[in-house]
Design a protein that fits this description.
The structure holds two protein chains of two kinds. Chain A is mostly beta strands. Chain A contains ten helices and 55 strands. In chain A, the strands form 13 sheets. Chain A has a 22-stranded antiparallel barrel. Chain A has a five-stranded mixed sheet with strand order 10-15-16-13-14. Chain A is globular. Chain B is built from 20 helices and eight strands. The model of chain B has no long low-confidence stretch (mean pLDDT about 90). Among the domains of chain B are: about 190 residues, Serine Threonine Protein Phosphatase 5, Tetratricopeptide repeat (Alpha Horseshoe), CATH 1.25.40; about 160 residues, Serine Threonine Protein Phosphatase 5, Tetratricopeptide repeat (Alpha Horseshoe), CATH 1.25.40. Classes of the chains: A mainly beta, B mainly alpha. Chain A: It is found in: Cell outer membrane.
Chain lengths: ~1000, ~525
């Protein structure tokens, strides 16, 4: 910032300072009660409008609060009641009675560098009901958000310690579609966040809401605020829960059944003359259920203890978390300790806040992908086999000619653990002048350090594996991230004009470093390896690298409302990033939004409509979330060659990875229109949105041709343009019947359609195995050979002709797959692939139902996706016994006696029928899942107080126990393997099914 | 008032510090940037070594190319447990993106080409203290680039042809084999003129003038330019080359790791166990400790010992045994080339031969396993250091005979070359063969050519030469295919007009508008 600008700021202050000076302190007291019953309301919040701090009513409903003047306005709120604003008009005591009803309208929403009342929103923001998080057993905050907000697609992975993936409003980018997470004003940190510490979650979905985060927000922003203490005596809360987890299993053949099919596959190979096959296998005698060997009931224990409280001048929230996840997979596990201190305080014009969190985790890494390996290995192979190096069983050319990997051996012979430490701290100070001007300085620091320890014992887990030397591996990663943010906020209501303006500068610098060492031949005592590097006696190899990045941004936003009816917001942000070349690194991004509260107009008089608002927004965001130095090409110093006699090793250097040096900002422009309505005495809420976004200059690591000689990753390129459009509807109903029974229901629906508008490098089509992206088409459309059926006879083969009468598959045998000769040229070739499926759901739905009666409550959550095609990678991997893989019980292969038309003959050593790129493996992936059923019971207060506790609650939550789908794979909800093959279920980790028991006390 | 200004000034001063926009200039100093490289003679030397480095890759000469070249030819067959791998060697190409063979061989050859092009595009701009050294390096890189392209066009024929440093947006044009050969001929002629005839021991592994002549001759032969081929071969056999090259006395010396870089070797790929690291550590281009050895043994060792990805066809044994040596024994080339059930009986003077420390197993039956390049007496190790003799003098002599015969029929020179190869293994001159009709062979062009096909099969079996030979002799008539079928049932899957070239990796065809898939795929 230049000096001149600073002067400008100073001048501005001087003006403001001279216009308003007086600051006086007045104490008010009073009582809050229910308007209907007259009962006192304990725990209601009383605050001064636009003021700092607040008070909580005691058991008698009484409160006392310091306010800035005798003419101040109080805001009184209480869960389940409509908030009220009361002008003191000189009074020192006020009694307030609240009306029961929904408080949603007065809910304050965090929108980045500020807050706004939900009813005054002009952009698309979803507020996640964090009450519902309580009963979720996900230990990952992202996973816990599943189905709780429209347009937000959360897909969990099922692997302990691995985070769920989240996409807001479809794919806007080709590289990084993860939204920006802001936790307590800090960037990131969601990965290690303890869900129990979370107070609120808001999802900013359109450009105008997210614009203040500019370049980092193109995929939306998730703002998470952690808990803080409330004014009042110290509250201690303990939550404990124990979850029992099971992973779904394939219905695989046992050895007995498998041998029968495998013998048939060999008989067929011999009969049809597959080279080298002369007899059936001399099967191993074992009957190994590899799933039984690897899967177990996982037990996850999670304990939270928190202390919170506060006074007028400050408050605190301290929590401890301990989590132990003995994963449901042999050899996996995750262990976490968390510690958090949130405090804030205020004196006069100065206030401060601080969040400190330290997390220590330890993860046991799993080797291999069990869901692929379960299928790949024959069930006849024994787990242990003393004849092999290392003592584990695996394939053998004579007895089980199979390259499947022994999963137990992989975990035993290559244990790997990954301890991590994460420290995040931020502190902000704020000077508030004249109740209107707030200058805030926020400093945030994140330090991460992690180590991966690998012990490779000697021994093998698959056929044909070299007899490797034992080794120790040590890899260390650490990073520092510093964020400095300075903002100046002016917030004032002058008559019917409401102004909220903010300007600021943010600077973020990141440094990360990796070092690794591998040493061969660790010493062994008996059969125990010594895992200190000093005890490894063999060759040492080592390496390391660092990463650095910086972002500097200027931001400004103005919110203006007239008479609470006409609302506008304008945002501008200027970002500079070190990840783009000097000439193009700066980008300016602006957005604008407006809303009209129709219900505020005098002419609007519809009694059942409490609030009705129309809004629209338009804006552009940037994205530069690519690698640290994607525009700088470097030399690879690793190549070596050997010359001469005697041999000498000589150093080589070359460029391995190509780069594009002309990278620019990716830009995404979104237009959003929405309507918000609150109806029927605040019982029904309804929000609908329509959006259209267009991304251009998409940054993507688009695969380039192999003939370029590129290696080490595809270069980043600004490749083309993509459009997304869709709608979202969120509706909720909340009511009470009598004073004891309350219930609620909410439903969200969304639909996103995307279309490729342009592709990089001047291409009009882009292909990957299984898929094709073409201009005008959605990404990831399935592009496969179409299976027409199975040849039933030699005659049938002869009859499969093109229009010129050429026999299309002359070499086919009865029982082989009949493919569609799409281009009618008389042969089956790569030209016969065709678009056969769409991986994008027609719509997605989230549903939640809740009810409470006396101390009991029940919550049911469900979500579903409908209309998408899925490529079943597990079925393709099992194929037809070509490699002696295992297969599923109940398959009916084609035989002359049983001439089915949907599955070919099985034959060893012949893959012609089991190719992956055919329509045979596509299925309808629609599903609806009751992801959560939670039952809770809160002990009546008089009983709990009797034993000195304020609140006792116990509950049970069932997760993922009921799924409605026709998909035959393990789980219709899977993490995709890349945006170009979004519908490919490549033996992904299935979601666990679990039962959680929880208990919590407050005192 | 003043106090507020002090506060605010204090708060904002922090920002003033962080607003220095030049802080966004961060250079990647993890290694040298390309802008600072290609400046000195040493940079060029390093760049050249990086081209040699591509020999040590799974898709080049550590493993997969052996399976593919031998498996397609009639001397080898793949009965690998990995079905897709073995189908690929039998002309059953289902997935054109098959990673282990089709895309890996393709990709790694083009990486080598990219590395070579970088050197050639920079070498003329850099001052060299010794001009001859520059010329030598140009010669080496042109030899290497031609070497990689020779195998690319042998496998796929119609390939994208890249002669300049690539950029990401390139979509190179496809060239026919004739067009590729024309460029290789030009480059290799240039290499011949630039490379020294001999090198000190410390430079073994770098090509010589003789190596360039030999590769050039091979290219001319594939291009059916017999006259040009003869000129190259003449230098090697009758010209200056005869001072440097000769057949070794012991045929087995061509395949031992103790007799590397001998007089018979024109060009060999140098393998070493200097980087003795884990088996996982291969094919990582960023690993300075990546393997410099070869997996040729592991790839071809018999079932139950190695991967057995490729083995020999039985007809070789029968063909070797057709003729007796002048001292009444079996052809030693049989002993050195393969392991089979009757080896002990056929070579009674070598009764205790072990197969990686094992005796012949009865359950192997009539199967025949590849012995060339094995260190037979020792248990198998995942890697070995036995140099691969890519261009061998016996090959040159037989090519010379073939080219001369193509031009003028079986001239005395042609017959002499053939007989030098035969007589090294104590077979009689062809005129005195106990099995073949020597008189007809030495008098009839067609008969001489037919005999060369057999002699080359036996002399050069399982050395990745046969597929090149079959292509030179033509794979487009049914009679030839029928004859091949009789020796190798893999040819039952052979479709004329299709199978003599592999399918180009589909992702390359799909995404390069200038590239068409090979016919009938």
């Amino acid at each position: 910032m230049k000096l001149r600008n600073l002067r400008l700021f100073c001048a501005l202050f001087c003006w403001l300072v001279t216009t308003q000076l007086a600051v006086a302190q007045v104490t008010v007291s009073g009582k809050v009660s229910d308007q209907n019953t007259g009962n006192p309301l304990a725990g209601a919040t009383v605050k001064e409008l636009n003021g700092q701090g607040g008070a909580t009513t005691d058991d008698a409903g009484a409160f006392s609060l310091s306010v800035s003047s005798a003419d101040a306005t109080l805001v009184v709120s209480y869960m389940g009641y409509q908030s009220q604003e009361i002008a003191l008009s000189g009074r020192k005591t006020v009694d307030i009675s609240l009306v029961a009803g929904d408080a949603a309208l007065d809910e304050v929403v965090v929108i980045g560098y500020g807050t706004v009342k939900k009813k005054d929103l002009t952009g698309a923001v979803s507020v996640v009901n964090t009450e519902l998080l309580r009963d979720r057993n996900s230990q990952d905050i992202v996973g816990a958000m599943q189905g709780l907000a429209s347009g937000v697609k959360v897909t969990s992975s099922g692997l302990p310690g691995q985070q769920a993936s989240i996409i807001i409003r479809g794919l806007g980018s080709l590289t990084n579609n993860a939204p920006l997470f802001i936790v307590d004003g800090m960037i990131g940190g969601e990965a290690h966040l303890n869900p129990a510490d979370v107070e609120s979650i808001q999802v900013l979905k359109d450009a105008s809401s997210a614009a203040i985060y500019g370049s980092r927000a193109a995929n939306g922003v998730v703002i998470i605020t952690t808990k803080s203490g409330k004014e009042g005596p110290m509250k201690i809360q303990f939550d404990g829960n124990v979850t029992s987890t099971n992973l779904p299993r394939y219905d695989l053949m046992d050895a007995e059944t498998w041998k029968r099919y495998d013998d048939l596959a060999y008989d067929e190979a011999i009969r049809t003359g597959v080279a080298g096959v002369v007899s059936r296998q001399n099967h191993f005698d074992a009957n190994t259920d590899w799933q039984e060997e690897m899967l177990r009931t996982g037990v996850l224990q999670n304990y939270n203890l928190s202390f919170s409280g506060g006074s007028k001048s400050g408050n605190y929230f301290v929590s401890f978390n301990r989590m132990v996840d003995d994963g449901a997979l042999y050899g996996s596990g995750y262990d976490r300790y968390g510690f958090r201190v949130n405090t804030s305080g205020k004196k006069g014009i100065f206030s401060y806040g601080e969040n400190f969190v330290y997390t220590k985790t330890d993860r046991k890494n799993l080797n291999g992908n069990p869901w692929a390996d379960f299928i790949a290995i024959s069930p006849t192979i024994p787990v242990k086999d003393e004849a092999n190096p290392g003592g584990y069983g695996y394939g053998n050319p004579d007895r089980a000619n199979n390259y499947g990997r022994n999963l137990v051996a992989m975990q035993e012979l290559r244990p790997q653990d990954n301890p991590e430490n994460l420290l995040k701290a931020n502190v902000f100070g704020q000077l508030s002048l004249f109740d209107a001007l707030h200058a805030k300085l926020n400093l945030a620091y994140t330090n991460y350090s992690g180590v991966t320890n690998t012990l490779r014992k000697s021994g093998n887990w698959t056929m044909g594996q070299g007899n490797d030397a034992a080794s120790l591996g040590f890899e260390n990663y650490r990073s520092d991230d510093i964020l400095i943010e300075q903002t100046l906020n002016y917030k004032k209501r002058i008559g019917r004009h409401d102004i909220d303006a903010i300007g600021g500068v943010t600077y973020n610098t990141f440094f990360g470093q990796t070092n690794w060492i591998t040493k061969l031949d660790p010493l062994v005592i008996g059969d125990k390896y010594i895992t200190s590097l000093d005890a490894a006696t063999g060759i040492t190899t080592a390496g390391g690298s660092y990463q650095k990045a910086r972002i500097l941004s200027y931001l400004g936003r103005v919110n203006y409302a007239f008479d609470d009816k006409y609302l506008v917001q304008a945002t501008i942000r200027r970002d500079g990033t070190s990840r783009l070349p000097e000439t193009t690194r700066w980008g300016n991004f602006a957005s604008f939004s407006a809303a009209w509260r129709i219900s505020g107009e005098p002419f609007f008089d519809v009694p059942f409509v409490n609030d009705l608002k129309l809004r629209a927004s338009h804006g552009t965001l940037g994205n530069s979330s690519i690698g640290y130095w994607d525009y700088q090409a470097v030399i690879n110093t690793a190549p070596r060659a050997v010359f001469g006699s005697p041999e000498t090793k000589v150093l080589g250097m070359t460029q391995s990875r190509l780069t594009n040096t002309d990278l620019v900002w990716e830009r995404k422009t979104t237009t959003n229109v929405g309507v918000d309505a609150v109806l029927l005495d605040n019982r029904l809420t309804f929000t609908a949105e329509y959006f259209h976004s267009k991304s251009k200059d998409l940054l993507v690591y688009l695969p380039i041709l192999m003939s370029s000689g590129n290696e080490g990753g595809n270069p980043a390129v600004n490749a083309g343009s993509l459009a997304n459009r869709g709608f979202e509807i969120e509706t909720g109903w909340k009511d009470k019947i009598g004073s004891e029974f309350s219930y609620s229901a909410s439903l969200n629906l969304s639909r996103v359609r995307n279309k490729v508008l342009d592709l990089g490098y001047g291409r009009v089509e882009y292909y990957e195995f299984l898929s094709k992206a073409a201009i005008g088409q959605p990404l990831g459309a399935f592009y496969l050979y179409r299976m027409l059926g199975v040849f039933q006879s030699a005659q049938d083969v002869e009859n499969h002709k093109n229009s010129q009468g050429m026999v299309i598959q002359p070499d086919a045998l009865p029982g082989d797959i009949k493919y569609d000769d799409y281009n009618n040229d008389g042969i089956i070739s790569s030209e016969d692939r065709q678009l056969v499926g769409n991986p994008w759901p027609k719509f997605e739905m989230g549903l939640s139902l809740g009810a409470a009666y006396k101390g009991f409550d029940i919550g049911i959550n469900g979500y579903g996706r409908f209309g998408q095609d899925v490529w079943n990678g597990a079925a393709a991997a099992a194929a037809d016994f070509a490699n002696n893989q295992n297969n599923f019980n109940g398959i009916v292969p084609w035989t002359p006696e049983n001439p089915v038309n949907d599955r070919p003959r099985i034959v060893f050593g012949d893959t012609r029928n089991s190719r992956g790129d055919q329509s045979r493996w596509l299925e309808n992936g629609s599903f609806f899942r009751l992801s959560q059923i939670a039952l809770g019971y809160t002990v009546p207060e008089r009983l709990s107080r009797g034993i000195g506790l304020e609140r006792i609650r116990t509950g049970v939550t069932l997760q993922n126990l009921v799924t409605f789908t026709r998909y035959t794979g393990l789980d219709p909800e899977f993490r995709d393997s890349g945006i170009f093959t979004i519908g490919a279920d490549n033996t992904s980790f299935p979601n666990p099914r679990s039962v959680m028991f929880s208990l919590s006390f407050t005192f | 008032m003043k106090r507020y200004i002090v506060y605010l000034t204090g708060v904002f001063s922090l920002i003033v510090i962080s607003c220095d926009e030049s802080k966004l200039d961060i250079n990647n100093e993890n290694t040298i940037s390309t802008g600072n490289f290609w400046k000195t003679e040493a940079d060029i030397e390093h760049g050249v070594v990086a081209v040699y480095n591509m020999f040590y890759r799974q898709g080049t000469w550590t493993r997969n190319i052996y399976t593919q070249m031998q498996g397609m030819a009639d001397d080898g067959v793949s009965l690998a447990g990995w079905t897709e791998l073995n189908e690929y060697a039998k002309f059953i190409f289902t997935n054109y993106n098959f990673g282990e063979v089709n895309t890996k061989i393709w990709r790694e050859h083009y990486i080598a080409v990219f590395r070579a092009n970088q050197v050639l595009d920079h070498i003329d701009d850099i001052p060299f203290s010794n001009e001859q050294h520059r010329q030598d390096l140009i010669g080496q890189v042109k030899f290497l680039r031609s070497f990689y392209y020779f195998y690319l066009t042998t496998l796929w024929e119609n390939i994208p042809f890249v002669l300049k440093t690539s950029s990401a947006s390139d979509a190179p044009e496809q060239k026919t084999p004739a067009e590729v050969f024309a460029q290789l001929e030009e480059d290799l002629n240039d290499a011949v003129s630039k490379l020294p005839a001999t090198r000190p021991e410390s430079d073994y592994g770098r090509p010589t003038k003789g190596a360039a002549y030999a590769l050039l001759a091979k290219v001319y032969m594939q291009d059916h330019k017999w006259q040009e081929a003869v000129q190259c071969l003449e230098w090697l056999v009758d010209g200056e080359g005869k001072n440097y090259y000769d057949l070794t006395t012991d045929y087995g010396d061509n395949f031992r790791n103790t007799t590397e870089n001998n007089r018979e070797s024109l060009y060999e790929i140098q393998f070493s166990l200097i980087n003795r690291v884990g088996f996982d550590q291969t094919d990582n281009h960023l690993d300075p400790n990546a393997q410099l050895g070869t997996q040729i043994e592991m790839n071809q060792a018999p079932v139950g010992i190695g991967w057995n990805n490729v083995e020999a066809r039985r007809w070789l044994v029968d063909y070797y045994k057709r003729e007796q040596t002048t001292d009444g024994k079996n052809d030693m080339r049989l002993f050195y080339s393969v392991w089979y059930d009757d080896a002990g009986k056929d070579f009674p003077e070598r009764p205790d031969t072990l197969i990686y420390g094992n005796n012949w197993r009865a359950d192997w039956g009539k199967r025949v396993f590849i012995k060339k390049y094995s260190t037979d007496e020792n248990p198998i190790y995942y890697w070995n250091d036995n140099n691969f003799r890519s261009l061998r003098y016996a090959d040159i002599l037989l090519l010379y005979a073939e080219a001369l015969n193509e031009l003028n029929g079986p001239t005395p020179k042609a017959i002499e070359c053939l007989n030098r190869v035969r007589q090294r293994v104590k077979l009689p001159a062809i005129q005195n063969s106990t099995y073949y009709d020597g008189a007809q062979i030495v008098s009839d062009k067609a008969a001489f050519k037919e005999h060369l096909k057999i002699e080359r099969a036996l002399e050069l079996s399982l050395e990745c030469v046969r597929w090149i030979d079959l292509k030179r002799w033509g794979l487009d008539d049914q009679a030839t295919i029928n004859e091949l079928k009789s020796r190798d049932s893999d040819f039952n899957n052979f479709i004329i007009g299709k199978s003599s070239r592999m399918p180009i990796p589909q992702s390359e065809v799909d995404n390069n508008p200038n590239l068409t898939q090979n016919p009938n795929y």
